[in-house]
Amino acid sequence: MLKADFHVHTFYSDCSNTKPNDLVKVALSKGYDILGVVDHNKIKGGILTKKIAGSKVLIIPGEEIKTDYGDIIIFLSDGKYNRDLIDICERARDLNHFIIVPHPFDFLRIRTSLRNNIKKIESFIDAIEVFNSRIVINWFNNMAADYAKRKKVPRIAGSDAHFLEEIGNTRVYLNCEKNIDSVFNFIRKNKVRIEGKRCSLYSHFKTNFILPLEKKLR
Predict the structure, then answer these.
(1) pLDDT above 90 for 109
(2) Which residue ranges make up each domain of the chain?
(3) CATH T-level topology, domain 2-217
(4) Which end of the chain has the lower number of beta carbons within 10 A, N or C?
(5) Cα–Cα distance between 131 and 144 in angstroms, integer?
(6) Among candidate residues 93, 89, 28, 38, the one with its CA nearest the CA of residue 60
(7) Which range (100-104, 108-112, 140-144, 152-156) has the least confidence?
């Protein structure tokens, strides 16, 4: 049984200070086999982390793209996507990239949650994030889980970790081989097992106040 976290950031995201080499070390220490590294509108973090990890941890690189309607995760992104939601999904389908909708019903993320706009791309979705550790009100996670069940969309989960101490908040278990094709195929079967806890409020405070101050003082 493989243990995964499909939503992790590095310092290539402005809201994170996690170094790729530290990310690999912590992931190994906590028994992770798979990490999805998806920085905001950048693919460098995933590519570098994959190079550092080698075969020790399967790194699935991608990016969390901000569109006019909300965020969408594209695994295996080549970094050449625009910001149009429909264009992104159509291109991802053509290139056989993997489409995930993160934190879709987190109404506190006014500019980054797809919310009602998820209907625009229902036919494209490969998986929906039914648990995100950074969601403050768990009801929003429950809404995503209910949607996935109702629409029969495969489930996935992620810590959305911005800092090393958040690694371990979410665990997705997969009974498959440790390669990208096998992982994607298993997710599509909708048989993953998910465990998780929400991050502390301090993590949000660190993101919004401490990290910006640290970067300003550098």
Answers:
(1) no
(2) 2-217
(3) TIM Barrel (3.20.20)
(4) C
(5) 8
(6) 38
(7) 108-112
